[in-house]
Amino acid sequence: MRFKFIHVLSALLISLIMLAGCQANTPEVVSTDSQANGPELFMDDGVMTIEGHLVPRVFATLSFAATGEVVEILVQEGETVSTGQVIARLGGKQQTEASVKSAELELLAAQQALQDLYDAQEAVTNQAFFDLQAARQAEWDAQSHLDSITGDQLQNEIAGAKAQLVLAEKQLESANDNYNDYEDEAEDDTTRAFYQVQLTEAQQAYDQAALRLDDLQGEGYTFILQQAQDSLEASKTQRKLTEAHFSDVSHGPDTDSLNLVNARVSAAKENLAAAQATLEQFDLRAPANGTLVELNLNEGELVMIGQPVAKWADLSEWYVETIDLTEIDVVNIELGQVVEVAADAFPDNIMSGTVTTIRDTFQEVRGDITYVTRIKLEDAAPGLRWGMTVLVSFIPFK
User: Fold this and answer.
1) Model's pTM, two decimal places?
2) H/E run at residue 147
3) Does 152 fall in a domain?
4) For residue range 293-327, what is the model confidence (pLDDT) as tens digits?
5) Less packed terminus of the chain by CB within 10 Å, N or C?
6) Residue from 232, 224, 231 nearest 161 by CA
7) Quick count: other Cβ atoms within 10 Å of Cβ 128?
8) Sign of CA dihedral 351, 292, 307, 297
9) Is 114 part of any domain?
10) Residue among 337, 275, 343 nearest 101 (CA)
């Protein structure tokens, strides 16, 4: 194995120098700083080897967003968790729960008010539509009536009325002659009574025919014509008004009323969200799928807001973060570069990895400027644990 070989040759080199005072072509230990306590870097045929530690893909320290007494622990240390899963709960949230219920009821009431507004608007729209149809029908009827007393139709009706008057006049003369023949008879004479009835009916028919003709061409016609024209204008005005009303209501509820109810709904939603967020502060939840790697809680314990109580990590992938890559050597590292990794706990198991991140910020380690490089393990060995020390060999690009 390359790493054991390096250490052996390094020790051999020191012995040879002390005993023979000469230098052989064996791997050398290169110090990145003249100080004995600075970070050390091993070089072998252009392969740079540095130290690092294992870390999960992502991890987080968890704390409650409220102060209270722990009343329930639902997940134990080492168990896997899913996104949003409750790990533990605090007590004393009855008032907050009541606030959530109240906010939910207000939201339901506001939403019902909005629905009622739309339901009422639908009824108004339907009525406006029926009113519009009635107004259009009234206009059509008024136009038809005016047409019937003007133009060719009027002349035809006048001719018909004159003919009816002539017939009525003839019938009246005949009835009058018949009655005259029996006028001197006793009043209870049936023949006299019969002709008297005929005369009365004939007179009524004649009067009606004369009135009808007068309505079509006399002073009565002028009144009827004016009345028909006025009725048509009134029906047109009413039709325009109903059209405008239907157009207005077809666009939905009254703007001011709608804005008011919508504002109520929005306020109710915001209040509910705020109440629910406050209630959520009593629960400690997993931020994502992963493992609860540390839990420092006991039921009945009083915890403070923001107090670290647990650690969560995604252990599905392992990464290495270097700790002694200096400013002199970081320039020789590139993203995507292949590395070989050996954990101190498993020295015979060589794992491959790829450089994924070279941090832009620096750290000062024993007087040296160092940069953390993050490496993804492609074939992590079983049994790895967070924080294990590893040696990383950066393979030069060919």
Assistant:
1) 0.56
2) helix 94-148
3) yes
4) 999 999 999 999 999 999 999 999 999 999 889 99
5) C
6) 224
7) 19
8) negative
9) yes
10) 275
In this structure, the answer to whether residues 74 and 129 fall within a common structural domain is: no
The two tokens of residue 370 are 């160092």
The verdict on 345 and 384 lying in the same domain is yes
Looking at the fold, whether 237 and 308 belong to one and the same domain comes out as no
Q: How far is CA 5 from the centre of its chain?
A: 62
What tokens appear for 227 in the block?
Answer: 């009345």
| Residue 382 within a domain | yes
**Sheet containing strand 302-303, strands side by side:** 283-285, 86-90, 68-73, 302-303
128 CB-near residues (< 8 Å, 6+ apart): 242, 245, 246, 249, 250
How many distinct structural domains can be found in the chain? Answer: 2
Give me the CATH number covering residue 230.
1.10.287.620
- Supply the mean pLDDT for the chain: 85
| Residue (of 367, 160, 117) closest to 258 by Cα position | 117
Domain that holds residue 54: 48-91+289-394
Letter for the amino acid at 259? N
Distance CA 181, CA 372 (A): 141
State CA 387 to chain mean position distance: 43
Residue 10 lies in a domain: no
Give the pLDDT score at 302: 96
> Cα–Cα distance between 87 and 397 in angstroms, integer?
46
* 201 and 251, same domain (yes or no): yes
- Asked if 185 and 192 count as a contact pair (C-beta separation under 8 A), the reply is yes
Do 66 and 163 sit in the same domain of this protein? Answer: no
- Judge if 302 and 384 occupy the same domain: yes
Residues 154 and 131 in one domain: yes
Bridge partners of residue 370, in order along the sequence = 326, 363
φ, ψ (nearest 5 deg) of residue 101: -60, -45
Is residue 152 located within the same domain as residue 245?
yes
Q: Which residues in the chain land under pLDDT 70?
A: 1-46, 151-154, 218-220, 398
Predicted confidence (pLDDT) per residue in 260-279, tens digit: 999 999 999 999 999 999 99
